[in-house]
Write a structure and sequence with these properties.
This protein is an alpha/beta fold and 254 residues long. It has a single domain, classed as Rossmann fold (3-Layer(aba) Sandwich), CATH 3.40.50. The chain contains eight helices and seven strands, in the order βαβαβαβαβαβαααβ. Strands 3-2-1-4-5-6-7 form a seven-stranded parallel beta sheet, with helices on both faces. β2, α2 and β3 form a beta-alpha-beta unit. α1 packs across α8 and α4 runs parallel beside α5. The longest helix has 29 residues.
Amino acid sequence: MILDAFNLEGKVALVTGAARGLGQAMAVGLAEAGADIVGIDIITPLSETKRRIESLGRRFVEIQADLSKTADIQKILETAESQLGGFDILINNAGIIRRHPAHEFPVEDWDAVMNVNLRSLFFLTQAFGKSLIDKGQPGKIVNVCSMLSFSGGILVAPYTASKSAVAGITRLLGNEWAPHRINVNGIAPGYMATDNTAPLRADPDRNREILSRVPMDRWGEPEDLCGTIVFLSSAASDYITGTIVRVDGGWLTR
């Protein structure tokens, strides 16, 4: 039956940035599909995420990690191995944003964004993929891209640069790791109601401008990503790799 292909029973998913917002919603969606979850965030405790996942009867392991650096990567994988017996799915969701005019962008803010959004994402993915390749184990990786993987934006130079690079890495790894039965895809949320977009939603002019270009005429909610993230994490997407699925309410088709 086709619905069986979406079942994640027996799978372990690592989700970065799982304390709130998009990461929490995706972690809960994966748990609803049957996966046990390793929630990774610099924010602890992940009490609400833990409560929601365990209420579904799924196991939840919390890891505090600073993804502005790569030092915690091995700890993440070792903890998943020791407490849940391994891992099958990686959701690279953690990300930060800083806003300044491009001609005034401080180097420290540039580095902060690039370290979290791109550098640590790549090296965590590298370590995850290498572990699966060494074991001969298939897996699923989903990178959270952005509308700014496709367009320029304003005032967010390193965010645009990092998300454009994540789209490129998704395509590259989709090519390289396909022979190992590791699918690497991306999901590109549109304008979602999260902490990152709070300044935009609070600005009446920007809020109106954004919604005028969204055919569905609303901000996305974190739960709008769950169907796509389960699909890309499941056997239902076994013949899809290097693809970025836009969940944007029609923004890019306008």
